[in-house]
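Batch manifest line 240
LIGAND: adenosine-5'-triphosphate
JOB: complex structure
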Amino acid sequence: MASNARGLRVANLVRRFGDRAVLDGLDLDIAPGEFVALLGRSGSGKSTLLRAIAGLDYDVTGTGELDVPDRVSVAFQDSRLLPWLRVLDNVVLGVGGSDAREHGRQALAEVGLEGRERAWPSELSGGEQQRVALARCLVRDPEVLLADEPFGSLDALTRIRMHGLLRELCARHRPAVLLVTHDVDEAVELADRVVVLEDGRIRLDVAVTLPAPRSHRDPGFQSYRDQLLLALGITEGATP
Ligand SMILES: Nc1ncnc2c1ncn2[C@@H]1O[C@H](COP(=O)(O)OP(=O)(O)OP(=O)(O)O)[C@@H](O)[C@H]1O
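JOB STATUS: finished
ARTIFACT:
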């Protein structure tokens, strides 16, 4: 990670689909090394915001300021690996430089997939495919890591393991992170700050000051969860 890494800044962002403003004057800053989780009801604009930051919003109109560094990596709910490329080739696809493959091998080792470089994506489990997707993000040495429900399709146990891995990788590489999730517990467990989106704006922005490791049974954890559920307007146990 470059020492002059900068975070990202979004100011007065408006994004419209037709007449409808999905993002309506949204402001958000994420510092280098800061981990922000983004919650919001279905359709509240979370993916629209993430795509705007990633520069992937070709199908909308809008205004506002986006100050985003060059090195941005994005992880999605599905790993989006190319099935006709082996694991290492997927990781380094589009990465230049004579040492790209060596960096790719290192990234795979970091996510626990040493020795699987020549495997085909179809030979890996869902969790392993998401690990490859994380390695593909890491190899680009991102200043900003955007993740849109990257664990949404994984079983509960694999998801817990991936939480640990993501925390470890972020602590080591210190990108600015924006994680979109439906899972309030995931947000409180992983993030330095949790932001709740409503009607195209930020309704709540709360710093999570619990020490690691964070336990769901801790009363402090539960009080963050209650505060977030209230902001989301949902009752315990429901999905936003
Ligand atoms: N290409 C599009 N054309 C028209 N409307 C769109 C388009 N993409 C998204 N929308 C609308 O914009 C709103 C926000 O969508 P977005 O995908 O950002 O929500 P979200 O918060 O990520 O939802 P979810 O949690 O269900 O993934 C939704 O009402 C959606 O229908």
